[in-house]
Amino acid sequence: MKSKSLTRLTIRSAEFYAYHGVKMEEQAIGGKYQVDLDMYYDATEAILKDSVRKALNYEVAMNSIEDAIAGESYSLIETICSDILNSLMDRFPMLRKATVRVRKMNAPIRRVVSYVEAEQTMTREEYEQE
């Protein structure tokens, strides 16, 4: 059996201002969000050729995050996670697995918390079967 290697490409604490939430005030006033993204792919060809054309382009990945955050207003941060992951899987055929964490920095609850976070992981089905 031939061994395979996966590279993890990570984006940490990307910050956005967006208009999501259950409460009307959140959708009107907006709030600060942070996103972490871990993407796993076989980077062997990109490494051997030292070519960004063969690599998973993290600038394009950032654009996917921004499109999801700045796009349609959602009630749940879980929905934002799903939107980001689906967009990434559509844009990057070589992407095997991705984990995204979306943090709402100023959750309107009557408690002192640093943030509220949702995390979701998506894996391509054909990769799971290999």
Overview of the structural elements:
With 130 residues, this protein is an alpha+beta fold. The chain has one domain: GTP Cyclohydrolase I, domain 2 (2-Layer Sandwich). The chain has helices spanning 24-29, 44-49, 58-70, 77-91, 125-129, and strands spanning 7-18, 31-41, 95-104, 116-123. The chain has a four-stranded antiparallel beta sheet with strand order 1-2-3-4. Helix 3 packs antiparallel against helix 4 (77-91). The longest helix has 15 residues, at 77-91. The chain is elongated, with a radius of gyration of 16 Å.
Question: Which terms summarize this structure?
Answer:
130 residues, alpha+beta, GTP Cyclohydrolase I, domain 2, 4-stranded antiparallel β-sheet, 5 helices, 4 strands, 35% helix, elongated
Q: Total number of β-strand segments?
A: 4
Percent range of helical residues:
25-40%
Percent range for β-strand residues: 25-35%
The second-level CATH architecture is: 2-Layer Sandwich
Give the strand order of the largest sheet, numbering strands 1, 2, ... along the chain: 1-2-3-4
Low-confidence stretches: none
Average pLDDT, rounded to a whole number, is 90
Radius of gyration: 16 Å
Shape: elongated
Structurally, the number of domains stands at 1
The N- to C-terminal Cα distance equals: 11 Å
The helix/strand order is EHEHHHEEH
Report the CATH topology name: GTP Cyclohydrolase I, domain 2
**Class, according to the CATH hierarchy?**
Alpha Beta
Could you say which structural class the secondary elements and strand pairing correspond to? alpha+beta
Largest sheet: 4 strands, antiparallel
The helix count comes to 5
Name of the CATH superfamily:
GTP cyclohydrolase I, C-terminal domain/NADPH-dependent 7-cyano-7-deazaguanine reductase, N-terminal domain
